[in-house]
Design goal:
- It is built from 4 helices and 33 strands.
- A hairpin with a 5-residue loop joins strand 5 and strand 6.
- 51% of the residues are buried.
- Strands 2-9-8-5-6 form a 5-stranded antiparallel sheet.
- The protein is mainly β.
Amino acid sequence: MAATATGTGPDAARGLKGKTFSSPADRTVVTAPSGAGAGAAARAQDAQGSSYLAIYLDATTPSAHSIELTTRVSSEAAELDVTIDWGDGTTDKATASSTGYDRRQTNHKYAAVGSYTVTVTVKDTTHGVQAVNELKFVTSGNEFTSHAPTRLLDTRAGLGAAKAKVAGRSSVALKVAGAAKVPAGVRAVVLNVTVTNTTGPGHISVQQDKDLAEGAETSNVNYVAGQSVPNLVIAPVGEDGYVHLFNAGWESVDLIADVTGSFSPAPAAGYGALTPTRAVDTREGVGTAKGQVPGYGTFGVEIAGRGGVPKGATAVALNLTATNPRADGHLTAYPSGQAAPATSNLNFTAGRTIANSVIVPIGPDGKITVRNGSWAPADVVIDVVGYYTPDSRSAFVSAWVPMRMLDTRKDYSWGLRKAGPVAGRTYEPMQLEADTTTPVVDGWALNTTVTNTTGTGFLSVTGDPNFWSDYQKGTAVTPQRPVSSALNWTAGATVPNLVQTPGGKGGMVDFWNQGWENIDLLVDLTGYYQTV
C-alpha cells in the first residue's frame, strides 16, 4: 500500500523568491523618426518628460531561461505600434489601440542564460513620434563551472578568516568571488563545509548575507560535541562576492570550506539528472577491486561514458560514503591526472558509516580519483546522481533563502500533513510541483536532515512514479525500494546531507527511511535545475 503524500501547496519552484528588474518611465526617450518633419520633431520635444508618451517596464524571472515582461504605456494617441526587442535577435510586435493607458504582459524564453538588454519601442503612428525605453535583464538560471578542489577557509590556520574559532552565535564572512580563481560575478558557489573541534551541539547556516545567515530557519550542517561533520552546500553569493557562515550553537567551533565549482549566468555546463546509480562498492568489487582501500591508498573510477554520464561531461555529482573504517580519517575525490589536493570531502571515525554529497571535476580521461586519507583501510561506496556537460542547458536557479518543505516534528504548513515521524521501512512522498503530467524542473537540490534516531539506518531519495492525484484518489502504487543511500545514521545522531534528485513523471520525490526505527526528517529546498 502506498504512503500518504506530502503536498507543498503552491509550486515549490515558483515559491522561491526571484529577482525583479525595472526601468521607470522617466528613462523613456521620445524622438521623431528621421524624415518625419518639423512638426513631429517639435511634438517629440514637447513630449519628452511628459505623460504624453511614456513607457514603464518591469520584469520577473518565472523560470531559469525566461522573462515575464510587463509593459505600461501612457499615451494620448489612439493607436500605437509596440515592438519588443529581447536582445537575443528576436522581437515581438503588437498594436495598442486604447487611448490613455496600455498594460500588457509578454513572456519570452532565452536559448542561453545570460545578460540581455530588452528594448521596447512605441510608435505613435498618427503623429509620427516614437518612444524607447530599455531594461537590463539577467536570467535566473546559472550554469556550472568546475573548479579544482581548493581550500578557501580554515579557521584553524587563519585561511580566509582570522586564526580563531568561530564563537557561538556569531558568523564569519568568506570572500569567494575572485578568490582562488573563482570567477567574479558568480551567483552561487559549491562548498564542502566542515565543522570541527566542537564542544557542544549546534548547526551552521550558510547564506549570501550576514542577517540572512543569522536569521535562517534552516541549517546546512548539524553537529554535536566531539564531531567533525562535512556537508556539501550550494550557497548563493552576495553582490559583494561574500558568503556568510553562522555558528548557531552556543560554543565555539572551527570551520573549513573547500570550493569545487561555481554557478554564473553565462553558458558553461548544464546539469543532467540521473536516478542514483551505484558506481563503486569496494565491499562487492563494483567499479573497482574488491576489498578495502588501504590507508593512504587511491583508486580511479571511470565516470564519463558509464552509468548515464555522457562522454564530454566536465563534472559529476556523487554521493560518497565511507563504511567499515578501521580508524579515523577522511576521503578526498578529485580529477584524475592531478595530485591529491589538501582538501577533504568527508571525515569519518572508526567503525562509523558516513556519507556526503560531492561535485567533482572529471579528468581528461573521463575518470576521477578517490583517496583514503586515513592510515587504516576503509570501504568506499559511490552513487552517481547527476553530471554537468556543455551539451546541457539545464540551468541552476538558487533559492534567495532556503525554503523549508518538510519538518516531520511539526504540522505541515499547508495543513496537508500532521506532525509525526517517518516510520521504519516506509517512505515519505512529496509533491514539489503543482499536480502536473509535464514537470518543468529537471532536478532538485534539497538539504535533508535526519534527527531523533533510535537505531541505525540510511535515507534514500528518488523520483516517485505516481502523480499527486494518484495519492489523492488512493490509487498510487508503491514504488520499488531503492538501494542507493543519501545519508547514514546511528542511534542519537542528527545527520545532514545535500541531495540532488530528479522528480518523477508527476514532479514528486520519495524519501525512504531504510532503517527499522522511526526518524524525523527535515527537507530544505536550496534550488533547482530547469531547461525552460
